[in-house]
Amino acid sequence: MTDKVCARRPTLTTRFGARVAPGDPSPGGGPDCRKAAASNRSHLALVLGGGGARAAYQVGFLRFLAQQFPDFSPDVLTGVSAGAINAAFLATHPGDFRQRAEALADLWANLRAEHIFRVDLPCLARNVARWSVRLLSGGSRHAPRVQSLVDTHPLRALLARALHAENGVLAGVDRNLRDGALKAVALTASSYETGRSVTWVRGCEIEMWERSDRTSIPGPLTVDQIMASAAFPLIFPAVQVDGVWYGDGGVGLRAPLSPAVHLGAERILAISTRPAHADQEPVPAANNGYPPPAQVAGVLLDAMFLDLLDADAQYLERINLLVDALPERKRASLRHIDLQVLRPSQDLERLAAAYEPQLPSAFRFLTRGLGTREVRSSSVLSLLMFQHDYLNRLLDLGEADARARASEIGARLRVA
User: Fold this and answer.
1) Where are the beta strands (DSSP E) in 278-401?
2) How far is CA 375 from the centre of its chain?
3) Most CB contacts within 10 A, which of 80, 96, 264, 318?
4) Higher pLDDT, 364 or 172
5) In this structure, what DSSP letter does residue 306 have?
6) Helix (H) or strand (E) holding 79
7) For helices 361-369 and 121-136, angle between their N-to-C axes, nearest 10 degrees
8) Where does the pLDDT of residue 139 fall: very low under 50, low under 70, confident under 90, or very high at 90 and above?
């Protein structure tokens, strides 16, 4: 049976999977990297993880850093899920880093839920009805096909405009690589066919990697890849790239810092959307009863987007201790990588609850059906709270947190 959707989603598959030599001037190869090769900077990587709407916090933080430290300009950008959108924007837009960060902040400040997914009642009702029939069909061949809870066609259109995509390709990335503003950019998604993390990479003088649970693919970056990286399981539809279906990059990503390490980072700045004290404050259901679906889903989403960054950061710090204890001649390929993980001073999930009444009525009705009002803090709600007032609150909080740690961050940024 033909799958009827609320808006037609064009299939925009790419053909850039070949493993070409970075820097190859041939079509489909790497960009002109002469200026990047001439740079003697100590490579600084910016790692932007997932978190849906909470990624606005990252942008507020970066906006302050760019204003406070004019020389702040990461050489390597890596992104997962909503962080992939931020990384792609910074890698694509022209100008210095401050101009790019301010333009990204303007984008987030004006977002609405309808810019990300369809929020009208007929569309949401059809999706819910299709899921219901599917679940009750017992696997019947005549059951409707289902893809996702919401239709993200608006997000695709927004990205194509905001990133000035040419036939789906982010042409601005090569310009910034050619001008020496970047060394590399990497976006990560999860293959639904193999279960592996796949990182699409565009950069200068870089080496691809292959591990049992993750791999890398060189080539031009595309809107499809960003959509794939940000495709929340079941909530957003999977995206096909080169004939393979992909979902959110946070699914199964065991080493969020690894793309930056592989791409030659000597210093890493990672911005998390989870407060440092999150694991010390239990969030019981408001009625102290059985946990509603929203609470269970929130734990799963946090495990995908946030917990693994903490674990990987601890692992990298242990490697640093080992490297520092070894004589230089015995370090082989190991190297010390300076890492700084920055976190919000407040719980972004609890902040979202205050803005829930402003959500579009049909979508608000749907989220309440999942039990978002039965918990004091909802990860699901904060992920999907694309409301301009909430997003501006996160932008301001990110900027305030960066200001409070300006001296500490400045000292680390000046480490060569």
Assistant:
1) 338-342
2) 26
3) 80
4) 172
5) I
6) strand 76-80
7) 30
8) confident
Tokens of 114: 């309808």
Strands 338-342 and 267-271 come out as parallel
H or E element at residue 48:
strand 44-48
What is the reported pTM?
A: 0.87
Contacts of 332 (CB under 8 A, 6+ apart): none
pLDDT per residue over 80-120, tens digit each?
999 999 999 999 999 999 999 999 999 999 999 999 999 98
Measured between alpha carbons, how far is residue 181 from residues 73, 93, 173, 219, 363 in Å?
A: 8, 11, 10, 18, 41
Looking up tokens 């679906």 gives 293
Query: Which tokens sit at 288?
Result: 């102290």
The H or E element containing residue 61 is helix 56-68
Characterize the bridge pairing of strands 267-271 and 44-48: parallel
Containing H/E element for 80?
Answer: strand 76-80
Per DSSP bridges, beta strands 44-48 and 214-218 are unpaired
- Write the pLDDT tens digit of every residue in 305-333: 666 788 888 999 999 999 999 998 888 88
Q: Residue 370 above 50 pLDDT?
A: yes
Spatial contact of 147 and 238, defined as CB atoms under 8 Å apart:
yes
Say yes or no to pLDDT of 140 above 90.
no
Instruction: Give bridge partners of residue 200 from the DSSP assignment.
Output: 187, 217
Could you give the CA distance from residue 19 to residue 31 in angstroms, rounded to a whole number?
14
Helix (H) or strand (E) holding 185: strand 184-191
The one-letter amino acid code at 176 reads N
The DSSP code sequence of 186-243 is EEEEEETTT--EEEEEEESS----B-SSEEEEES--BHHHHHHHT--TTTS--EEETT
Other Cβ atoms within 10 Å of 346 Cβ, number? 15
Nearest CA among 183, 163, 173, 176 for reference residue 223: 163
Length of the chain: 416
DSSP letter for each residue of 113-140: GGGTS---HHHHHHHHHHHHHHHHTTS-
Taking a C-beta distance cutoff of 8 angstroms, is the pair 225, 187 a contact?
yes
Element (H, E) at 91: helix 82-92
Q: How far apart are CA 411 and CA 205, in angstroms?
A: 29
